[in-house]
Design goal:
Shape of chain A: globular
Number of strands of chain B: 10
CATH architecture of chain A: 3-Layer(aba) Sandwich
Order of helices and strands of chain A: EEEHEEHEHHHEHEHEE
Helix content of chain A: 25-40%
Shape of chain B: elongated
Oligomer: heterodimer
Helix content of chain B: 40-55%
Strand content of chain A: 25-35%
Number of domains of chain A: 1
CATH topology of chain A: Rossmann fold
Radius of gyration of chain B: 32 Å
CATH class of chain A: Alpha Beta
Distance between the termini of chain B: 26 Å
Largest sheet of chain A: 6 strands, mixed
Distance between the termini of chain A: 15 Å
Strand order of the largest sheet of chain A: 6-7-8-3-9-10
Number of helices of chain A: 7
Number of helices of chain B: 13
Chain lengths: 238, 413
Amino acid sequence: MKQPLVVLKDVWKIYQMGEVKVPALRGVSVEIHKGDFVAIIGQSGSGKSTMMNMVGCLDMPTKGSVHLKSHNISELSESDLSTMRGKAVGFIFQQYNLIPNMTAFENVMLPLEFLEIDDAEAEKKTIEVLKLVGLENYMHHLPSQLSGGQQQRVSIARSLVTDPEIILADEPTGALDSVTGKEVIETLQRLWREEGKTIIMVTHDLNLAKYAHRHVELKDGKVIDIRENKNMKKGDTK
Amino acid sequence: MKFHKSFRHALNMVLHAKIRSWLTILGIVIGVAAVVAIVSLGEGLKQDMSSQLNMLGGDILTLRAGASRAMMFGPGREFGGSTSASTEEVVLDNKDVQALKSVSDIKAFDTQISGRADIYYVAEKGSATVTGVDPATWAQITTSEVAQGRMLGPADSNVIVVGGRIADGFFKTQLGVNQMLTINERVFRIVGILDDSSSNVYMPINMAYEVLDDKEKGVYDTIVIKVKNEDEVELAMNNTEKRLMLSRHVTEKTKDFSLSSNQQSNEARSEMMSSMTTFLTAIAAVALLVGAVGIANTMFTSVLEKTKEIGIMKAIGARNSDILLIFLMNAALIGFIGGLLGAIFGTILSGLLPSLMGSTADGMLSRLASGSAVSIQSIVVALAVSVFIGMAAGAIPAYQASKLKPVDALRYE
């Protein structure tokens, strides 16, 4: 058995809200392997976003450990965490989170700039991923000049540009209508099947979850169920 | 992130900035413009002073009757009328001339009277300062030089030397050497034109007594003294003073004349000018400081406003140092743009100020008006200082921005 890509071991996250301590995660243990398409499902407040933030090195566990590519994220320096986020993880957010005064092209190229990839290579890669999501004709548009679906595709392109192993999608279709939402989720599925990406998607929508091959269900900060989705066969991972 | 990329992002931030950023820049512009204008004026003044000091000659003493005028600015060239109205009996006369002749430190002296008189050229009339000088010594003592013709000589009587302005601009026609001017019903021939822009007329003192009505023959307004050794002006001054006190039967306390050196009055003047410049610069610096507070304020607001963007950047791989650098450079750029515009406006302002001042003020201010010097050095310093101010003011906000936690920043709306 290969080393899992992401390992959460008895992870607790407790938020201090004034004088009250609010536990968001209570002893979560999950393993995610390369080539998985995992849907983290659960109702609002079940802790799924918190869990995703840990996997994406955006947040630290209060207790327990998160290993990403066999690094314990609690032991990494802030600068290493940044590099880890930049190289190993690509984020897709519900609200797209593009930088408003940068064009689609600049937004997509930004992660490469942080990694100090040289310009010629970065531009080539940027154009490549924008073509992949079908936006080659919108490269020099600002986010405000793009539709929601197009913006989300820019955000997908941005998450792909560093060629990360893991793509984290937080309610990726939450702000889209059902048709564009379907396009986006199909793009994700294609990335999983054809590019062999590991995809972790947070959603409360069971219709979306059916595109994933594994479901992790959270409730009140605890994993209550992990099941394979029999309709979805795991893609041909390299 | 590479440096030039961070710079581009910072520049982008400034260019896409709201009107607030431009107002902040305006604050710096005003501060820097004020500093540059005042410093250049002061610099111009200093250069002007030192050139005047050289021109006026450090070896010249001026003797006047009456109470001490040591604090007077300048040699008092336009000093019309009697030397002292309150002490009518106190005058300079032949006794003083005799006394001066016996002072060994004195090389030469020139007895002068001066006053206003009407001058005519053909049918045109004007009023000018007429100075009667000792034709034998004037040429060797005065620092004025002729542009055309010659200075007065010992044998001259009905001739005059005029200032540059009398020859050019005073009358409708331009005057040249050998042309005739009528002063108080006497006709004078111009033998020399000075290369200055004064409207003075110089003539032998004997003629001046006749032209200037209220002057009593044998009484002098001023005596200009040239000392033998320029390095021993102080000594010469002391000796002259002692000798005069003796001949005029006065003591240090009852002294009824004043002896001042050009060196002294120039020093007093430049001291006053430099303290004035320092004072004005301090005020301008306060303006600059307020500008810096403005930058800090804008940067804090900007960090708040960009919290979400900072979160996004961190999520896609920005290190703390990347964020720090972008915000620090943003602040530095605001400072730089403000400094650049400020230096440009300051330069324009320092060019305009003298003419503005010159039109309304005279005396000391017109000296100020004589020019300003904007040096490349002062511009570079102004730019460096404003960039530094920008970075110093932006340091804390930029540090705060870099320390934001990505989760919190992303959640910020």
